């Protein structure tokens, strides 16, 4: 995790397949709410956001990505587990190199010590409000 009061810089990748998007599922204990976020993670000192995106996909789910296209940079102020957070998000669209990733439904992985799940979700489930996508401005990329 990060230190309180720290602004985190993240690189996140949106992988789509038709009307589905590949996301990481999370849970906010403070709000008692499940949410979904694009895969990726922190940018380390000395690496570009694009390099961080490739590294994070490989570290988390052993996936290589290709056709990496920069979309936007967003600032996100939020509350998670009753604590304020602040992130700068470099947003990319990308594809998996290995087609097997388009065939799976869910994939369990570890992020540090935390167990997480990545899965394909129909985009309409976010547009109707049935499921929560964070940050909310990511709805524009679906």
Automatic annotation (TrEMBL):
It holds the Pfam family NUDIX. Keywords: Hydrolase. It comes from the Bacteria. Residues 4-142 form the Nudix hydrolase domain. SUPFAM superfamilies: Nudix. InterPro entries: NUDIX_hydrolase-like_dom_sf (IPR015797), NUDIX_hydrolase_dom (IPR000086). Its cofactor is Mg(2+). The keyword Glycosyltransferase does not apply. The keyword Hydrolase applies. GO terms for molecular function: hydrolase activity. This is NUDIX hydrolase. It comes from Gloeocapsopsis crepidinum LEGE 06123.
